Amino acid sequence: MQTIATIRIANSALYLNGQQMFAHEAENAEVFFKALYQYLKLEYPKFFKMDSLSKLGFLAVDALVQHTAEIKSYADDEIAVVFGNYASSLDTDQKYWNGVAAAEPVASPALFVYTLPNIVQGEIAIRHKWYGENMFLVLDRNNKTAVNNSAALLLETGKAKACVAGWVDYLNGAYEAEVALVRKPEE
Amino acid sequence: MAKVWIGAENIVSPLGLTAADNYAACLQNHSGIAAHEGIGLNGETLYVSRMKDVPSELPNTTSRILQMLYASVKDALRQTSLQLKNNKRVALILSTTKGDIEALEQGSLEGAALSKLVEDLSKLIGHEGEVNVLSNACISGAAAIILAHDMVQTKRADHVIVTGADVVSRFTLTGFQSLHAISHEAARPFCKTRKGVSLGEAAGTVVVSNDNSIFNGEAFDLLGGSTSNDANHISGPSRTGEGLYRAITKTLNRAGVSTADIDFISAHGTGTLYNDDMESVAFNRAGLKDTPLNSFKGYFGHTLGAAGVLEVALCMQTLRNNTMLKNMGMVEAGTVEQVNVLTEHISAPVKTILKTASGFGGCNAALLIQNNNA
Lengths: 187, 374
Hints:
- The complex is a heterodimer.
- Chain A is α/β, with parallel strands linked by helices.
- Chain A is built from six helices and seven strands, in the order E-E-E-H-H-E-H-H-H-E-H-E-E.
- Chain B has two domains: 5-214, Thiolase/Chalcone synthase (Peroxisomal Thiolase, Chain A, domain 1), CATH 3.40.47; 220-370, Thiolase/Chalcone synthase (Peroxisomal Thiolase, Chain A, domain 1).
- Chain B has helices at residues 19-27, 64-78, 101-105, 109-112, 114-124, 140-153, 170-178, 242-255, 273-285, 297-300, 307-321, and strands at residues 5-12, 33-36, 46-49, 90-95, 131-134, 159-166, 199-200, 202-209, 220-229, 264-266, 293-294, 323-324, 346-347, 352-359, 363-370.
């Protein structure tokens, strides 16, 4: 499997292939995500309705698309999106549950729709009009390689020509995204 | 690439503790869905398929979902000669959306971690190979079986135990209520007057393998499948059925199976207006409008992450018994495009089955199983 480019978002900074592109010390993740949104010059109002996990994955993939011309050469169903994380959607799950468990119970539909980890893949598919394969794995933090193994499988079976694959994890303000564009090595 | 077999199915649900018992209960027109008082957000009565007695082979401090998963996997393994000890070539994939969400309701984030659930299960059954959790909303089960197929086909694993489960919890019930997606009667998928989803709880298991001889009973060909995204909306189905249409056509093309070869479709059929209409459009576009189909959700409710595994297990029972089960609860056909929904159980030779699923996040899945045992 050949890696074309890697985007990493962690510690209030954005990295392309290991090199820091942008840093912004912010008091919390949401403020940093907004700064990153501005740095990437995005105009996508729906972004502000997303939960934190979706914002994180969305920003990572947008940065990846901006920095890899190759990604535009694939047909709309040739790119797979394979993500993994530890915390699933637990961050939003807690927020939703706090409403239901309150003295005056409130069930928020706007929160509930984000109580699934793969919603971020839906947001990315809508943004880039990608109709290809989707897979979301929830893994122990020491088992991140399973994400790449599963991406490799989709390339090997020919189900995808390229894959946006990586780790997108968010819980209680702590975040880490590392996503790469990968493809089969040229023969 | 290795040939891939599927066998040793189990279902743990309100209708029974084995796949055969569950299938027999459906054949007798039983449904697990019933009215439960006071379970809604503000104490409303809701219709759900909930287990009265969860299997309890494990200590009583064990979560309900783990008890169900353990009972399901143990029954599936009893139908094989698979040795788990010192065998790294057996993988275990759990498909679930919310796992032990009751732990979160009690304030334990670690307890609700999905990786913990699969690791606990792996230890309990004495499994030593790779573990994984697939969580793609309501296609999780179907997608996990597709992943298992690809792992065996490419020799990443020799055998994969695929097990799926979700429980009926206050979390999911109130959530579907908030989306106005819950039916105020037992769900009636594909019916003209359908009113929404009934949630259900179940665990289901199948074993996927490169070796037919590990199965005590007959195993079937797993021809693989595909997933796709609608690229349209995170919680609303595509009006054109684009993603499902693509998942079906990719699956048929890859397997070299034509629409005429398909004897039966196990559709997703949640019972919401938009979902069932979307499926009818996709099946029409794929040239499958006359193929007999059902949704099993009138019997079991929507079991979320378990649904794909549960429904494939029922498809395997359909192959064993050559009887297709009717779509429970339908009074009058009424989807935007016409499809051939089964209104009676039909006994006929069944060789090839298409299973489909669609879920939040715009994801879709399709897979094929085939009986080539003479």
